[in-house]
Description:
Helix content of chain A: under 10%
Number of helices of chain A: 3
Distance between the termini of chain B: 25 Å
Strand order of the largest sheet of chain A: 1-2-25-24-23
Helix content of chain B: 55-70%
Strand order of the largest sheet of chain B: 1-2
Distance between the termini of chain A: 17 Å
Shape of chain B: globular
Largest sheet of chain B: 2 strands, antiparallel
Largest interface: A-B, 46 and 30 residues
Number of strands of chain A: 25
CATH topology of chain A: Neuraminidase
Number of helices of chain B: 24
CATH architecture of chain A: 6 Propeller
Structural class of chain B: mainly alpha
Radius of gyration of chain A: 19 Å
Order of helices and strands of chain A: EEEEEEEEEEEEEEEEEEEEEEHHHEEE
Largest sheet of chain A: 5 strands, antiparallel
Strand content of chain B: under 5%
Shape of chain A: globular
CATH class of chain A: Mainly Beta
Oligomer: heterodimer
Amino acid sequence: MLTTVAAGRVFDYSFCLGMYGMSGQGFWTPQDMALGENGIVYVINRGAEELGQRISRVTLDHQFLGQFGAYGRGDGQFIWPRSIALDNGNGGNNGNGIRVFATDDFLNRVSIFDADGAFLSGWGQPGSAAGELNGPAGIAIDHNRAGADGNVVIVDSLNHRIQRFTADGEYLGGFGSHGDADGQFNLPWGLCIGDDGAIYVADWKNRRVQKFDADGNFLQKFEASPSGIGALQGPTGVAVDSEGDVYVADWGSHQVQIYAPDGRFIASLVGDAQQPSPWTQTYIDANPDIIKARRRVDLEPEWRFRRPVAVKVDANDSIYVLEAARHRLQVYDKVKDYEEHPLNL
Amino acid sequence: MPDKEQIALMGHLMRRAGFGAPHEELAARAAKGYEATVEELLHPEHQEAVDVELLYRFLPGYEGALGPPLNQAEWVYRMINTQRPLEEKMALFWHQLFATGNSKVDNPPELTQQIAMFREHGLGHFRNLLVELARNPAMIFWLDNNGNHRGAINENWGRELLELFSMGVGNYSEDDIKEASRAFTGWTIGPKIPRNPLGRFYWSFEYRPEDHDDGPKTFLGQTGDFNGEDIIDIVVKQPATARFLARHLYNFFVADEPQVPSWNITPPNDPAAIDALIASYDQSGGDIRAMLRTLFNSDFFKAARYSRVKSPAELVIGTARLVGNYQGPRPGFNALAFECAYQGQELLNPPSVESWHTGAEWIDGGALVRRVNFAAGLLGNTSLPGVQSIIENLQERGPMTPAQLVEACLELSGPVEVSDSTYSELLEQARQGGDVHWDSESNRAESGRRAGLMLALIAASRDFQFA
Lengths: 345, 467
């Protein structure tokens, strides 16, 4: 359904963006995104084997601005690009605007670019000792709140822990170990930082999201209720809105699960892209056989999320869901002034 | 402790029923017992399946692969990483028998779905497998059954079902083909959302009763209003089917037979073995698992070491498993898939519905060079974990003579059984370095280097080309 009403919230489908593209306009098994200034979105593409690795720059009004990064081990290149985050430009780019931080969970490093994609620097050493990385997945930069220090928080996935670094890669500390107790992880994936500095981690194989304070103390977890609703089958991305509601990209169940701040399950989003994105529509319009074929089938499987891998929330509480297997972004609004229509229509 | 002969026999079983295994695994399995291992292999459901979540997390492009070789690479990953070797080997067997190719289907994920179906049904009853095959979308498209309509039959599926998939040439008439085809009218695939630009969507089997010819048919001497499953029920009861399947299993698992197209005029190399497999088929009602139990526990199987030329897939997968650097997700499985293709076996894309010719026909000058370079390159690479493990094993044995070095390397890499001439050449090379010592860092380095060289030479031998 295009509008989801639950527990006093309203989530309204807005639009979608993107399509498959081995290079150039389009995405290929995108893994993460970052919302920049002026409606610019950075999407990091995993590609496959030696093709398609890149960061795409697009706008929310469907302009393809360009791409940077490519397959390889050199500076600014990727083998397994995984996650992406932006800083606010105040943390060390000499007043030259935001920087783009990207993890590579094969090369075990973080690459840093300027807003236009020029490679600036990189850091990361493979290993399991403190400050070393093994499969760095999610990345977040602590800068969107009062008192934020601009430090980088990384999900060190194959070491089953969270590590904090300065923007230049100096190790500051970490927490977590392998296991399924509170505060432990099993192949964690994405993360986000809330306005209060709390760290939310998608604890992938433990099928839950855990919340920690800024010092790494366990606070609470988001998972299935005792009755089973709101279950997670493989959470990969997490975001928090201005009211504290928590959105989880559940890659394993092809849904986004939404929880109240107290952990109570609220609703699921399942994908609603009934209207193809302009890029997709252009592709369809140029292929008469595809137009014919589409008229003979139920298109619902196409609307639905397929491998939602990352979720972000902007300052207006719009929700952005990135789908790895549909190479697409679906956008929802959290409507604050919704008036219920008469139900007896 | 199992003796060398028991380990050698286990090596034989694991090469044939799987893709080989390192020496430590062979020793552990031999300690458990040969027949117990056969039973374990025959019941893959008792072992953990490949963790596809982990696979698709790290290699997301493999899920619903957009194009070759990604779908081939996905299968290569499974063949190397499976804990269910016979399940995967049977998938390869059925792929070679029911050869379906991306060259026409042009939907890589559909081929992957077909392989998944082989995993699920490949050790069950042949009747059920044929029904699943007839319903498989990739097969329907590959053999044009979507164009097989009431009143306007397309004989492609009906013909190959009888000729290539069950009975073999000479056991049916042209009228039988037409009648079988009539019975399969209405078995088709539903329209699907087109590929791109939003990824792949899957076909599904669709039965259209309005397009099915439900009139009376006479097939192999029986008359009735047959539908497709009735045809398969008749087919699987034919002696020719039991014989055909027995020869395929023998050719794939025991020893190279003449090429399939000659089977209606060329008797099997071992008629008693074929008869034993046929008896197993008859007694079990066409149960593949029962036939394989008979086969693996038979004397003719145990006596057939190194009597089959490895297929490219067997050579590539077996070597990769032995050297141990393809455990779990990592880049590079597509390169292994390409390697299979370069050696003459592009997985999921056989040259035709007649499949690949096997045995000696796997080998030509170009293919042999690729096979040797590939295997020697990996086995000679002393940085790889499986090779390091072999070297550690050698080191634990202490100082050794050149002959002992040769024999230990042969033992730990297969065990590989070589001809006298190969052995002489290996020994001659080993003698150039004298005795092997591990008592100092420089000696360990030199002995490790010599072991790597010896393993590369073994991989380059004629004998290593056989399973």
